[in-house]
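can u pls check wat happens w/ zinc ion
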Amino acid sequence: MPERHEIVCYECGFAFVLQGRFEKTYCPKCRQCLTFETITIDGVSRRTVKTIGVVTVTPAGKIAGGRIVATDVILAGAINGGQVCVSRRLELREGATFKPDCVSMRDVRIHAGARIALDHDLVCRDLEVDGFLKARVHADGLIAVRRGGFLSGEIHGPRLAVQDGAGLSAVLDVGPGCAPAAPRKTSTAPAEKPTLSQPETRPEKKKRAPASRKGKPRKAAQNKST
Ligand SMILES: [Zn+2]
């Protein structure tokens, strides 16, 4: 059975699925040629990389500069500088550290066996916890704590799922209308792209989790005062 890849265009943010093996492809929406590379960083890096593949940062890897754009980033080292744009998922493994200003991502996964304690807020869409995470989380999608996982700290977001066998010790602010306090940075930056001739100039549709009727914060504030 051919492998299925969920691709997120690093130029326009459009998500689509491809099957099989390939080195490059074209975005069906913006027609940009997208290269597929699998990259491992295991030293100090100031590289600039754009790929629809996966970038792995090993425990010895340190991103100190440059700009990395990838579909997924698996981080077991450090991101201390530069700019890392993860169009789909940032996976944190044991030893992962990052400066929040240097990284933007859509989803986050805490790998099984990893113990991650963040001294800054974690802002994302979906969060999957298979390991241990201590953090203040603002997620505008689903927060899922899986069997064997443990989430500690503070949780703000519309949806939370805790599996049988998972642990949770946190201040909860969960439900429709519990939007993240901090506006989430989008992972792709179409603003920097020079505008190409686009046949259809519709406002870009962003793929979002089916956020079930999220109340607007303003409305919520008004309701409170009555
Ligand atoms: Zn595109």
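The mean pLDDT is 84.
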